[in-house]
């Protein structure tokens, strides 16, 4: 602020000084031209009369007429330049011995050189006052800037200290701590809001990790306990039952390994670590393959599985992963819709729907089922890892597709929309 104001005042000062000099030069040149013209039109006596009666308020004149010096000035300084060049010189006025500063120059006329000058000390005094006022204004501005800067920085430091104290609480593990947001909606509030959103996401992820840990412990405890008990009992098994019991334990172990492999595969897909084998995929052909693969599973439960297709749509995607996602959805419908249920697959251009008339999913649980290892209580009697729908959503996200769960009245309606 000080530099800006000082620069502006300096520019104004330079403009005033330049304007003063220009006005003085123009006035002196105008007077010089007038006296040159006067010398050409009148005789010497008339010219002298004009010099004697010249208005001193317009210009101060000095003309050396022989031994006599005529005009408003009582002296003619030496080394005065020819107009338009000018020079400043002082004069003593009256008995008060007051000094005035004049600016003038010599003009050559038919009757000799004439000194033409004008007072400039008043303009200089005006500029001096301007400089003094400017310096005072700058001093007040600096003081005001320091005062406001101190108050402003004090407020900022207070908020920064508060943010630092709260961040230390977060570092200590109090993840429910949030930075305060005022009604001013300034930059600090925007930063605090963004930081709070990051904390919300972090807290949600931590809860999700805890939930995943609990679900892993819940789902893995039973098969691992069976494995431990089975291994302990192996030495006491009859020889003819030993192979069968080892096969059962191997199946339990395969289920545990499949769960962990599914979690690793899901992470690779979500993080983009698994490259997609992109190729043109016809949705109608994908649905035909899906019906062919799932029809036998539906017949085992006396279910009716139907397919209805219309205008075909070709997208760019990984056919293997897309088939895996769709088959997982149909497999879930077959598992949980119940015996004798009706399941329909419909493909209409870039939209695929899978509907059943089973028990469905409560509306408050439709978002949770996409989380890792989340299995609703009614489904825990079915063997599974609880990662199927998480995998489906990850695969569809990689293909820029969306999935929506809604009520089929009765049953569940799954809607997949592929981006064109």
TrEMBL record:
Keyword Transmembrane: yes
Coiled-coil regions listed: 283-311
GO MF terms held by the record: phosphorelay sensor kinase activity
Transmembrane segments: 130-152
Domain HAMP: 154-207
Catalyzed chemical reaction(s): ATP + protein L-histidine = ADP + protein N-phospho-L-histidine
SMART domains named among the record's database cross-references: HAMP, HATPase_c, HisKA
SUPFAM superfamilies: ATPase domain of HSP90 chaperone/DNA topoisomerase II/histidine kinase, HAMP domain-like, Homodimeric domain of signal transducing histidine kinase
Domain Histidine kinase: 215-420
Record's subcellular location: Membrane
This enzyme's EC code(s): 2.7.13.3
Entry superkingdom: Bacteria
Keywords: Coiled coil, Kinase, Membrane, Phosphoprotein, Transferase, Transmembrane, Transmembrane helix, Two-component regulatory system
GO cellular component, one term: plasma membrane
Listed InterPro entries: HAMP_dom, HATPase_C_sf, HATPase_dom, His_kinase_dom, HisK_dim/P_dom, HisK_dim/P_sf, Sig_transdc_His_kin-like_C, TCS_sensor_his_kinase
PANTHER family reported in the protein's UniProt record: HISTIDINE KINASE, SENSOR HISTIDINE KINASE YKOH
The name this protein goes by in its record: histidine kinase
Organism: Shewanella mangrovi
Lineage of source species: Bacteria, Pseudomonadati, Pseudomonadota, Gammaproteobacteria, Alteromonadales
